[in-house]
């Protein structure tokens, strides 16, 4: 066999591939484009993140202001009050007065969200309730001995 011309199907070069070389590239381009469009739609329809905007010390407790209603779970544990909010926010701490006695409070990030802890030298009991006001969500934490 000399050369690469065809003679009775006995030749040294392979037959030309009838499939187009552009088809895998077209499929890959469509897949990437579809993924990008899906990511943009997901970003537009994602719910807004719940954020703690403000903490106010009021008579007998705290008022916490959020941009949307947070899910919360609270407990009275061995004389302290602990409330976990499923929201984002900055850590903070402070002190308030309950019947002319100091109560320390601390807001810190945890695995499940923001953890609010209220501690005093005497046992505390707490109650909390949330309500929407002026387009924001307020959670009131009230303390008593």
What does this structure look like?
- Helix content is 16%, strand content 47%.
- With 145 residues, it is α+β, with helices and mostly antiparallel strands.
- The strands form two sheets. A five-stranded antiparallel β-sheet has the order 3-4-7-6-5, with no helix packed on it. It has a four-stranded antiparallel β-sheet with strand order 1-2-9-8, with no helix packed on it.
- It has a domain at 52-144: Immunoglobulin-like (Sandwich).
What does the secondary structure layout of this molecule look like, with pairings?
Layout: H1 23-45, E1 52-58, E2 61-66, E3 72-77, E4 80-85, E5 92-98, E6 101-110, E7 113-120, E8 125-133, E9 136-144
Antiparallel strand pairs: 1-2, 2-9, 3-4, 4-7, 5-6, 6-7, 8-9
Region (Disordered): 1-20
Transmembrane segments: 22-42
Keywords: Membrane, Transmembrane, Transmembrane helix
Strand order of the largest sheet: 3-4-7-6-5
Low-confidence regions: none
Q: What's the tally of helices?
A: 1
Cα(first) to Cα(last) distance is 104 Å
Percent helix: 10-25%
Task: Return the string of H and E elements.
Answer: HEEEEEEEEE
Number of strands: 9
Write down the Rg: 32 Å
Q: Any guess at the CATH architecture of the domain at 52-144?
A: Sandwich
Shape: rod-shaped
Kindly state the mean pLDDT as a whole number? Answer: 86
Helix-and-strand structural type: alpha+beta
